[in-house]
Amino acid sequence: MSLLTYEDIDSLVHGKATDDINSLFFKNKDHYIRKIWNDKDNIERLRSLRSQKIISDYDLYKLAYYKISSFNPLQSENPLFKLIAEQGSDGTLLISDQSEIHYLCLDAHFNFIKGILDVGGKIDQNKFLTSAFSGYKEEYKIFDYLLGNFDFDSSALSEAAAWLVYNEHYEEELGKAAFKKIVDKGLDINQKFSNESELSEYDSLLSLVFSEQPIIFISWLDGTPSQSTISDFPWEFIIFEHDINEEHVEAIRSLIQKGYELPLQEIATFLRDKDEEDFAESVENISV
Predict the structure, then answer these.
(1) Predicted model pTM
(2) Between the CA of residue 16 and those of 19, 20, 22, 101, what are the distances in Å?
(3) Which of 174, 208, 272, 278 is deepest in the core (most CB within 10 A)?
(4) What is the 8-class DSSP label of residue 185?
(5) How many Å apart are CA 200 and CA 197, to the nearest integer?
(6) Residue 126 to residue 96: CA distance in whole angstroms
């Protein structure tokens, strides 16, 4: 493939490019934008291309992210965001790709994210919220900003709460405070996970809390979990993928005492298949 010369790019900057030059530029736009960034008059050249709508706000964002370590940590000196601000938002700066959000959603990048919003960019706040604690992340600064400035889907609140429990952040003061903020936003304890969620094997927030923190689960029973959510617990997954203990048996007993229907014999069979005979007998002896 032919590559554009400096003179070709210069013709673009000055609005004198041929159709062939335009076509080649758009086929490998990221490469040429990074190349322009290395020019001594980079901002002026990018400003001209942006004013001609040859490049977009999203293109400038991608360059800013690519060079994120080169800018002032406070991002107040980020010339690319200033360039977007002076020309006004073109509506293209939306951060919604899940993998992109995963790497961007770090407290270390808080001011960068804030810079995106300050110049009229938009983010998928639901995906950012679920990413704040996914994997082994603890991005409390981003979390607090999101909770204070956006509304969220029920599924996003549920998954964020689930990650706090799954990663045992809930056992720490910051995690407990974050969890309470999610509850105050209107957490639905019966929320199911989507098939795309990394936690989908649990089926629901309730199932995950039962599996990971059965004592917390017992405390949630006053919130009246739905029978349909309880009925969908993936018992085989729960039993074979977790270290079952007396607290789980107590949680099962509490469910029965509250009037919920459970497949006790099926649960006991899975426990025996896992060589958990004592727990299997305990489950079988629960009075219905």
Answers:
(1) 0.89
(2) 10, 12, 10, 37
(3) 208
(4) T
(5) 5
(6) 9
Count other Cβ atoms within 10 Å, centred on residue 241: 11
pLDDT digits 0-9 by tens, 97-120: 999 999 999 999 999 999 999 999
Comparing 5-9, 202-206, 227-231, which segment has the lowest mean pLDDT?
5-9
In the chain, which residue ranges form alpha helices assigned H by DSSP?
6-13, 19-27, 29-37, 42-51, 57-66, 79-87, 98-104, 110-118, 125-131, 140-149, 154-166, 173-184, 205-212, 214-220, 227-231, 235-240, 246-257, 264-273, 277-284
Rg, Å, the chain Cα set:
26
Q: How far apart are CA 99 and CA 103, in angstroms?
A: 7
User: Taking a C-beta distance cutoff of 8 angstroms, is the pair 57, 92 a contact?
Assistant: yes
The residues pairing with 122 across neighbouring beta strands, listed in sequence order, are 94
Mean pLDDT of the chain: 93
Asked if residue 253 lies in contact with residue 218, where contact means CB atoms within 8 angstroms, the answer is no
Integer Cα distance of 51 and 74 in angstroms: 27
SS3 at position 40: coil
Q: What are phi and psi of 122, to 5 degrees?
A: -130, 150
Q: What is the dihedral of CA 173, 175, 176, 178, to 10 degrees?
A: 120
The continuous run of DSSP H or E covering 95 comes out as strand 94-95
Q: Which tokens go with 2?
A: 């032919």
* Closest to 217 (Cα-Cα) out of 248, 240, 188, 181: 248
